[in-house]
Amino acid sequence: MAAELLKIHPENPERRKINHVVDVLRDGGIIVYPTDTIYGIGCDLMNRKAIARLCQIMDIKPQKLDLSFICNDLSHISEYVRRLETSTFKLLKKSLPGPFTFILESSTKVPKILDVNKKTVGIRIPDHMIPRTIVELLGNPLITSSIKDDDKIKEYTTDPEEIYEDFKHVVDVVIDGGPGGNVPSTIVDCTSDDIQILRQGLGDIEQFL
């Protein structure tokens, strides 16, 4: 059965449609969704079968999974990262929601969820109402695979209908939230006192330092 192409208003997401997406996620579904950078692909963090399926779709081994969690707000991340230093918390507070992925030390809960011994986790709070509303109603973060040149997802595809054609036979819902961006998030490593930019993408983190 082909995936559903679901149009959702990017600024005022229709609650009925978001609830439908949440139901799909709770049933182990995989979705493609817009963010404030490029379109992403993900599933419910708490559904192990869905994570295994996501890895299969992206053709990656669970041990190689780059963990990136889509969260709703800063309070949402406390379960998944170790205690934040005051300076790091201030940086996140000033720059989020925004086009940044922050690499942080993971809490002991993360390996238990994923059965993978990962010491770090990527945290995203996108400045986009669709994924944040989904996460808010779901009650769990979305886990999304890193989008790289060697991934199956097209890194710079901006047309959701074109994305749908590529993914309609492997995911359950493709959300059309309008044209996507073509620049990925900036990845910022905050696991040491010396903050490092691992990938310069959309957004200038220097203005918040």
TrEMBL record:
<dbReference type="InterPro" id="IPR006070">
    <property type="entry name" value="Sua5-like_dom"/>
</dbReference>
<dbReference type="InterPro" id="IPR017945">
    <property type="entry name" value="DHBP_synth_RibB-like_a/b_dom"/>
</dbReference>
<protein>
    <submittedName>
        <fullName>Threonylcarbamoyl-AMP synthase</fullName>
    </submittedName>
</protein>
<dbReference type="InterPro" id="IPR052532">
    <property type="entry name" value="SUA5_domain"/>
</dbReference>
<dbReference type="GO" id="GO:0003725">
    <property type="term" value="F:double-stranded RNA binding"/>
</dbReference>
<feature type="domain" description="YrdC-like">
    <location>
        <begin position="15"/>
        <end position="203"/>
    </location>
</feature>
<dbReference type="Pfam" id="PF01300">
    <property type="entry name" value="Sua5_yciO_yrdC"/>
</dbReference>
